Amino acid sequence: MAAAFVDWLGVPAGRRWLDVGCGTGALTSAVRASSPELVLGVDPSAGFLGVARDRNPGAAFVVGQAGALPAVAGGFDAVVSGLTVNFVAAPGRAVAEFARVVAPGGVVAAYVWDYADGMQLIRRFWAAAVELDPAALALDEGRRFPLCRPEPLRRLWSDAGLTDVTVRAITVPTVFADFDDYWTPFLGGQGPAGQYAVRGDRSALRELLRQRLPTAPDGSIPLTATAWAVRGHSSMAPPTARR
């Protein structure tokens, strides 16, 4: 997903990038493949940044918040964020900060999972969970993150003063080797689905998913994951990224 996103932006080599909410550095790695002049990753978790540094020698990382970036105005040609904007407390403030630190004519872009429709591993999880436990509907990310749709993203970028705003879907295959490969990540307790999976006895949910998930003859589970990607440009100069 990160590589497809960076390719869509079309930012030329030799540019300065800021990766906001970089986490363990997956998007940073994709940015580094574009031959940038420099890459700075920002995340509130020092632990995540330690992993990101190990994965991305040559990139710089600093602890910081999306709503108060530790960067000077106009310091970057591209400001990006992967799977983060819907989790920050004040998305409007965060995107305004993205716009503040991007250079004239630079690109500001992000992507978030399409929890409502296109994130199949999550959609199938909650469909099964709600069938067994209707109260689980309130936890579904598709309901909890209304920002993760085209029009709210477009409005968020436009309200920050960014121009030439474009939103598109990016879909990638997510093939699991077997059912355990699908189910085990939920047991880490990360996110609403993971937290639900480890709360109480979920054996009925596990078995219902085992029955319902599409399974190939070799036991693999072929799904797809769709993200909504949004980009805009500083209004102070014409955009440089390709359409």
TrEMBL record:
The Methyltransferase type domain, residue ranges: 18-109
GO biological-process terms attached to the record: methylation
Top-level taxon of the source organism: Bacteria
Pfam families for the chain: Methyltransf_11
Keyword Nucleotidyltransferase: no
Molecular function via GO: S-adenosylmethionine-dependent methyltransferase activity
Keyword list, A-Z: Methyltransferase, Transferase
Listed PANTHER family: METHYLTRANSFERASE
Protein name: SAM-dependent methyltransferase
Species annotation: Crossiella cryophila
